[in-house]
Amino acid sequence: MRSRASTNGTARALLVAAVLAALALVAPVAEAGATPILEPTGSLLTERTKAAAAPLPGGDALVVGGLHHVTLSSLESESLASAEVYDGATGTFSTTGSMATSRMDATAAALPDGRVLVAGGQVWGGVGTPLASAEIYDPESGEFSPTGSMAVTRFGAMSAPLPDGTVLVAGGYGSGSLASAEIYDPETGEFSPTGSMIAARGIGMAAPLPDGRVLIVAKGSGGNAVTTEIYDPLTGTFGIGPAETPAPLTGAGSTLDDGRVLFFSERRAGESTIKRSFEYDTATEAFVEPPSAPALTVERPAVAPLPGGRMLVAGGGSEDPTAYQGQSIVPFAEIYTEGPAPAASAASSAGGVAGNSQGTVPAPASAAGGSAPTAGAEQQRANAPAATRPASKLCKRPGARRKHSRKARCGRAGAKVPQSSAKR
Predict the structure, then answer these.
(1) Is the dihedral angle over the CA atoms 74, 76, 81, 85 positive or is it negative?
(2) DSSP designation for 346
(3) CB atoms near residue 37 (< 10 Å)
(4) What is the band of 424 on the pLDDT scale with cuts at 50, 70, 90?
């Protein structure tokens, strides 16, 4: 553990408060009774499933790697090294540099200076080869470069940025299911171990919470009923999180820039897959299933938050009995956003979204580490040694030539400060 001054903790608390205040001012307020919808947007240039995605400065997003069929009529599939950038202003994808190694089931996370960490995954060409290596995407140059490798091979891992600018990479699969976790430090380009999860798990979501902790949602291996955990970067440990039901088979999601946490759940039921959409209420630590919330039509898409409380959902697999392994790989992309209020009264609809008893799964009172911090606990966390380093260390990368402004991303290391979707 690094030595940290308590004053840094207080400074971090003030910075967090400032960031949340800025989010409240600029994030659009959903219309009362608004219904979440999936809006079509431009398609990927290459169909891909099991890809990774992360937000980029200026309201764009990176979609990288994944799996595709060698030809549209081929029974063979292979992992991809290529990547595409989604332009949030035009709603279109364009090509960018390729990774040195093809990867499906990799994990991606944004770094404070606008770059993106892409870690692990597996090379697929009929047989999977798990990877421990990682690469960094620089949106200024449009190129990938190698960085330090993880301690173990991982595919299907989950990752999330932490308040001090580092990245948590947890779980996944390698030589079996993994409970271990690692921390990536962009200053050194190296991974280091941290506490392990309560249960081995993968192919789920790691979502940063407002207090700096990380919510993990994924089905535990070996029949473990615990589907959520909370990682605390101050202690480097995981605790049992709030309840989530039904237990997801797989899933994807992220923290939106308006503070909501969105999770798409997939659960196998016989020959079909049940898909549902949940929002996580950070105040009550409960999962809410909004009435009429759209379920994804695809499995294993790449998702990334966009400005305005929206989320990009790109690619994935679609059930198709005539296709190889019963699934077609699609290039389609959609935006999860708030639609207009339905004809029913706004008050009634708003109550259903925010807290009706049918849509809310309460957190168990005994969930260790899953309780919402009280004001006193929040102050204790603020006064505790902070896992923070000056943002300037991360935001001044010598020799960097970037067309994306860093100022918007470096107010607090790891904070997702709102950015305009207008083109630079």
Answers:
(1) positive
(2) H
(3) 15
(4) very low
pTM of the model: 0.73
Q: What is the 3-state secondary structure (H, E, C) of 110-168?
A: ECCCCCEEEECCEEECCCEEECCCEEEEECCCCEEEEECCCCCCCECCEEEECCCCCEE
Asked whether residue 243 carries a pLDDT value surpassing 50, the answer given is yes
CB 352 within 8 A of CB 342: no
Residue of 46, 26, 41 lying closest to 104 (CA atoms): 46
Which phi-psi region, left, alpha or beta, contains residue 82 (left: φ > 0; alpha: ψ -120 to 50)? beta
Is residue 33 within 8 A of residue 347, CB to CB? The reply is yes
49 Cα distance to chain centroid: 16
Number of H helices, E strands in the chain: 4, 33
- The DSSP bridge partners found for residue 206 are 216
Residue 131 structure tokens: 């990877």
Which residues 6+ apart lie within 8 Å of 14 measured at CB? none
CATH code that applies to domain 6-409 = 2.120.10.80
**319: enclosing H helix or E strand:** strand 317-319
Q: Where are the beta strands (DSSP E) in 223-331?
A: 228-232, 237-240, 250-255, 261-269, 272-281, 286-288, 302-306, 310-314, 317-319, 327-329
**Rounded distance, CA 34 to CA 40, Å?**
18
Q: At 295, is the secondary structure helix, strand, or coil?
A: coil
For tokens 């089905």, the residue is 219
Residue 320 Cα to chain centre, angstroms: 27
Q: What are the CA-CA distances from residue 406 to residues 111, 113, 245, 257 (Å)?
A: 11, 6, 39, 17
CA atoms of 27 and 261, how far apart (whole Å): 14
C-beta of residue 275 within 8 angstroms of C-beta of residue 266: yes
DSSP conformation class of 70: S
Q: What's the mean pLDDT when you consider all of the chain? A: 73
Listed range (240-244, 302-306, 357-361, 377-381) with the worst mean pLDDT: 357-361
Q: Give me 296's structure tokens.
A: 């994804």
Domain edges within the chain: 6-409
**Residue 349's pLDDT band (cuts 50, 70, 90):** very low
